[in-house]
Amino acid sequence: MNLLRMLVFAAIGALLSAAGVAWAQAGRQPIDWSSVSLESIGGGPLPTADYKGQVVLLVNTASLCGFTGQYLGLQELWHRYNDRGLVVLGVPSNDFGGQEPGTNAEIKRFCEATFDITFPMADKQVVSGPDAHPLYRWAAAQTGLLGTPSWNFHKILIGRDGRIIDWFSAAGGIGPKLERAIEAALAAKE
Question: Total domain count for the chain?
Answer without folding.
Answer: 1
